[in-house]
Amino acid sequence: MATAAATLPGPLPAVRRRHHWQERLAQGLLVGCCVALALFLFAPLAMILVKSVQDKDGAFVGLLQFQQYFQTAALRQSIANTLWIAAAVTGVTVPLAFAYAYALTRSCMPWRGFFRVIALTPILAPSLMSAISFIQWFGNQGLLKGLLGGTSVYGPIGIILSSVYATFPHALMIVLTALLLADGRLYEAAESLRTPTWRKFFTITLPGAKYGLVSAAMVVFSYTVSDFGIPKVIGGNFNVLALDIFKQVIGQQNFNKGAVVSLILLVPVFVAFIVDWIMQGRLQSQFSSRAVPYAPRPKRWFDAAMLAFCVVVALLLLAVLGMAVYTSFIKLWPYDLHFSLRHYTFGLIDAGVINSFWNSVKMAVATAVFGTMFIFGCAYLLEKTAGMNGVRAMIRLLAAIPMGVPGMVLGLGYILFFNHPDNPLNGLYHTMTILVLSTVVHYYTSSHLTAVTALKAIDNEFEAVSASLKVPFYKTFFRVTVPVCLPAILDIGRYLFVNAMVTISAVVFLYAPETQLASLAILNLDDAGEIGAAAAMATLIVAASSFVCIVYAIVTRLLLTRTQAWRKPASAV
Amino acid sequence: MVQTNFVAYLKLDGIRKTFGRFEALKSIALDVARGELMVFLGPSGCGKTTLLRIVAGLETQDAGTIVQDGRDVSRLPAVDRDYGIVFQSYALFPNLTIASNVAYGLVNRRDRRDSIKGRVRELLTLVGLPDAGPKYPSQLSGGQQQRIALARALAPAPGLLLLDEPLSALDALERVRLRGEIRALQQRLGVTTIMVTHDQEEALSMADRIVVMNHGRIEQVGTPREIYETPATPFAADFVGKVNVLPAVIESGGNCRIGAMSLALGRGDLAAGTAVKLYLRPEDIALSMNGSHAPNTLHATVAKIEFLGAFCMVGVALDAPGVPPLVVNVPRQTVTQAQLRPGAAVSVCLPSAALRILG
Description:
The structure holds 2 protein chains of 2 kinds. Chain A is an all-alpha fold. Chain A has a domain of 261 residues: Orthogonal Bundle (MetI-like fold). In chain A, strands 1-2 form a two-stranded antiparallel sheet. In chain A, strand 1 and strand 2 form a beta hairpin. In chain A, 47% of the residues are buried. Chain B folds into 2 domains: 232 residues, 3-Layer(aba) Sandwich (Rossmann fold); 115 residues, CATH 2.40.50.100. In chain B, strands 6-7-8-3-9-10 form a 6-stranded mixed beta sheet, sandwiched between helices. Chain B is elongated. The two termini of chain B are 28 Å apart. Chains A and B meet through helix 20, helix 21 and helix 24 of A and strand 6 and helix 4 of B.
């Protein structure tokens, strides 16, 4: 004790552990990831902040431009427009998605898997496609024009209809997860207490799905606020914020005004994002690993009613997709309905627009491959290596930001940052590389979360065991971590591919004529009145995305069968 | 059991660790002898796992030195230290076969292929699973997986084996079986081993020596018998085994007073008037139906009987006022023969030799 007391006085110099070169390597890579995110996410966004308080000549003007903005009645109107449209879309989509998810999880109706797939098809198409389709149905020469009772589809109605279609699968997936996480034991307990069905619904089902519903509402809201393709195609003279940015930047080349509108657009989206983030956290913590999944029991009338509802919704969804595909294969709507490939041969190939489809495929493949590598590698370094906690916190924050940033804002930031003459990276501007980079960053958050979830699910001590066995961490990464996480890795790749095929908002500012993408081509074809060719292009995108999804499904299935020996826990030993 | 020719294989000195404002370890000094199995025992949050991870180099101490086999490893990264480790979660690589798992650390040393194969076979036989090689971890039971984890850790023949709650994830039967096996294996190989556990029974049955830890401090170091029979602190007495605690005041003549009752302590070295606490194991109290005349025998009434299989835990209220109730372990046969029931009048003897005065 005496010796211990003798060593006590005075703070001892902290023990600094020596670092093995492998640890240095991991930390170096981590810093690299952080720098990349700072460069391709943070810097462009910071640039918007800077530009918003500068005039065209780069002089500091404070909030003058904001003041000017708010003095323009037309621009003020677009804020109100944006918000009420988004609120309306949220009000329609979320209840619809909830009812659909309820049918899928709580009824015993047949073909639930089929209905699930149908409901997710809107993800495969660019949001523009739904706008085109609704024009075909309800436009000036629309089949069902009469149903609107004289109101034009060009305007709020068209935007709301198209946005509901485009956001439905996003909301559905979130609500579906929330309902699937429900604990069956709660219902058993309620039943043993003779609780009536309606009371179970209001005391167990709704509270259980509460966070999921709020989260879905936030996602739908920000999707609608951020999307510019739909209002561009079907909005007519109806102005919204996303369209204002587009007009300021592309139309008037006024980047500073664009920056101001971007920041205003950022506010609602970022608020929604923060709410969503909190809700997702609660949704996760609500789920206990001991929960017993709820197993519905057949109830004739309820199942029949649910089936009828799903059939109606699925038919409506298919009608939208189907109309676009149909339009692409007929001669001229509505005058000549004969089958024809002229929109493909004439409208796309001969017009040279087909190149943009191949550009899209190239871009999507590159995004999927490099994006997945970077995102998964970065998540691995973040979760499974040690040291540099400051850098780690920074990466976590940066990885969360893209979900709260509308694509238009990101795209504008990219122009401002990479097109700046003093930026040594300005050679990237107008290249395929910058399209890939912006798309990876745009869809970073979801992919990152998928990777982190997969990495958290595997044993935390693999790295410690490797170190004790003197095996370098990267060897264990390739030999164990990657094979174990392969399903998640493929999932990220598919997600990035599909989104890269349909993305429009960030890339609209960044493409050059030779790097034009398919989704942008639709926009331009529609502008030129080539609605058939635009539909053909949308159909090609849907086909490519579907193809990748089917390949993904097959590969995943094969992979799971092949690795079943170690993935499935033995039933009895 | 106490080694006379004590050779410290691992020397920890002045190890301290804080997490933010929480002091996880407060200046730990400890010697582990070559070839012994030492158990770090304590409640969760006592710092035992942190100490193990510091020995492994998975955490870095704020201050203090670690000398392993004469080599100062205090500042070395985990990769450069010499140990094998087994975790509660097994941490077997799920996509590799059992043989590949066991060979994982051998392949990296660029050993010859057939020598690796031989070594894997040898280790699988050692842990009693010679045919498990081509299987995958998920095809084995928890206990079998933990045996494989042990084989993997032992494969490169490390100088030190670290076991981090290796049995906590197993069911009760498997746990008892595996603890005997690990102990036998450890003694056979003579590998210096540190095991962390919160299970006192596991510690008592497996350890050469136990380190009882609480709040980042070492409460006591000793053989299982020393810890159980002569606990050094109230915490050690309370954490390891069951114990009755009686607040008492020393009287003159080697006696003490508990409420309205006086007990002979058999020692007179404490000043009269000192407030002390007496610790007494339930099995050290003798309970009888007919009044015995041994010293320190008191009248009591049975309050409740809890059946625990081999013996019963009998709660008794002493007839003297102001004395807390006691718990007495009584063999099942005695309970049956004496037809012990709640409310029965009994006498209990608190032998002065078994009374331990702490604090």
